[in-house]
Design goal:
The protein has about 150 residues and is an alpha+beta fold. The protein contains three helices and six strands; from the N terminus they run E-E-E-H-E-E-H-E-H.
């Protein structure tokens, strides 16, 4: 079980940025350096779907009210890759009353299904732990002026 209480890894790389070598993992203590994800296999080691490819796809989804992608906002809690190409994404929203509560999970599912090798994608919206601004990447904080 990951440090955030959910299965899978919560990798926070520089999705959408040029330098992929500066990856971090979110922990309750904050962002910590992580080993670069393998582009050949997921965390189970059995699939040909790279976690970074999934992160890059998810990073194309933006919160319509905030000019930052949902990955950098810290809304993605876990990505699990099955050996059969099935992907499970655990995500949250900035607030339970988020006006995009229906749109964002559907957009994540569509983005993930566009990654070669993905056979199925289930997106689960979770509320524990609750989202807070500390989950945002440094780039996201700078984009919304939250220092």
């Amino acid at each position: 079980m990951a440090p955030d209480g959910h299965g899978g890894q919560d990798m926070r790389g520089e999705a959408g940025q040029g330098d992929r070598s500066v990856a971090t993992v979110w922990t309750p203590e904050g962002e910590m350096p992580a080993a670069p994800p393998s582009s050949a296999a997921g965390p189970t080691g059995g699939g040909a779907i790279g976690e970074q490819a999934l992160i890059d796809a998810i990073a194309t989804v933006y919160d319509p009210e905030i000019p930052v992608n949902i990955y950098e906002l810290g809304l993605i809690y876990a990505i699990e890759i099955g050996e059969d190409g099935a992907v499970k994404v655990e995500m949250t929203l900035t607030a339970p009353g988020c006006p995009s509560a229906q749109e964002l999970p559907a957009q994540v599912q569509k983005a993930v299904l566009g990654v070669p090798g993905v056979t199925r994608c289930d997106v689960e919206v979770v509320w524990d732990p609750p989202w807070d601004p500390s989950r945002m990447s440094e780039e996201a904080r700078l984009a919304v002026n939250m220092f």
